[in-house]
Amino acid sequence: QVQLEEAGGGWVQAGGSLRLSCVASGNSFSVNVMGWYRQAPGEQREFVAQVTPGSSTNYADSVKGRFTISRDNALNTVYLQMNSLKPEDTAVYYCNAKTFTRPQREYWGQGTQVTVSS
Can you spell out the DSSP letters for 60-114? Predict the structure, then answer.
């Protein structure tokens, strides 16, 4: 089992910045890709960004150039630096981890609210 604990959500005005963090514990040695997803009210959960252990990254088009995902493997922690925030970024942000194991397992954090006011 892998446990994920997020921190760093909150309220910010449009144009502002927030930094999310997520720490993996438990069988964290089995974690491969880590990432962030978000879910706005009445919407489906959507992909935001992901990072491999070797720091290869992938972003949703909607956040490219504004968000930066990074990872500290020694601390089993993934970060999401969010700049130039827009009201449409308002959502619950969920940390996600996928394992090296076969079959692959997937884990989710409890979510952290990000609210961007106009």
Answer: -TTTTTTEEEEEEGGGTEEEEEE-S--GGG-EEEEEEEEESSSS--EEE---EEE
Q: Are 45 and 37 in contact (CB under 8 A)?
A: yes
Read off the pLDDT of each residue in 20-49 and give the average, rounded to a whole number.
95
- DSSP, collapsed to helix, strand or coil, labels residue 30 as helix
Cis peptide before 41 (omega within 30 of 0): no
**Phi, psi values for residue 74, rounded to 5°:** -65, -30
- Per-residue pLDDT band for 29 (boundaries 50, 70, 90) equals confident
**Bridge partners, 99 (sequence order):** 31
Tokens describing residue 112: 């952290």
- What 3-state DSSP class applies to 34? strand
Cα-Cα-Cα-Cα dihedral sign, residues 105, 43, 17, 113 = negative
Cα(61)–Cα(48) distance, integer angstroms: 9
